[in-house]
């Protein structure tokens, strides 16, 4: 079945490793060259309406997904030692310009 981001954003994500509710899907990451979805992103929970920052984002690779159901997404997710953020390459718009300068 094919889901859009709007459909996925309405589903709650639950970690089957410990039964924890991780939140709702906020964004996706995809490979720009192939268009394949690489990961789902759950933004970190805010502290005191965002005034005191927020937790780290949770990055779920597609391999972490066990089942996409009617109301929930079940994932097998293990926290990294430094919190819930998986290692991922940061994307900055400036990098696009640097890449284009090298190609010209």
Brief overview, please?
With 104 residues, the chain is an alpha+beta fold.
What is the helix fraction of residues, given as a range?
10-25%
Mean of residue pLDDT values: 77
Oligomer: single chain
Radius of gyration: 16 Å
Number of strands: 7
Order of helices and strands: HEEEEEEEH
Using the alpha-carbon principal axes, give the shape. Answer: globular
Distance between the termini: 42 Å
Detail the poorly predicted runs: 82-95
Strand order of the largest sheet: 2-1-7-6
Number of domains: 1
How much strand? 25-35%
Number of helices: 2
What name does CATH use for the topology?
A: SH3 type barrels
Identify the CATH architecture: Roll
Task: Describe the protein's architecture and organization.
This protein has helices at residues 5-9, 93-103; strands spanning 12-15, 21-24, 27-30, 37-42, 58-61, 65-68, 72-75. Strand 1 (12-15) and strand 2 (21-24) form a beta hairpin. It has a four-stranded mixed sheet with strand order 2-1-7-6, with no helix packed on it. It is built from two helices and seven strands, in the order αβββββββα. It has one domain (5-103): PRC-barrel domain (SH3 type barrels).
Topology:
Layout: H1 5-9, E1 12-15, E2 21-24, E3 27-30, E4 37-42, E5 58-61, E6 65-68, E7 72-75, H2 93-103
Parallel strand pairs: 1-7
Antiparallel strand pairs: 1-2, 3-4, 4-5, 6-7
């Amino acid at each position: 079945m094919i889901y859009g981001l709007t459909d996925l954003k309405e589903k709650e994500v639950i970690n089957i490793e410990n039964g924890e509710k991780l939140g709702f899907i906020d964004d996706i990451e995809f490979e720009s060259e192939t268009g394949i979805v690489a990961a789902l992103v759950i933004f970190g929970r805010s502290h005191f309406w965002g005034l005191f920052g927020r937790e780290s984002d949770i990055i779920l690779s597609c391999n972490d997904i066990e089942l996409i159901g009617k109301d929930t997404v079940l994932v097998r997710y293990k926290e990294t030692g430094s919190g819930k953020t998986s290692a991922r390459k940061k994307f900055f718009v400036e990098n696009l310009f640097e890449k284009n300068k090298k190609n010209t």
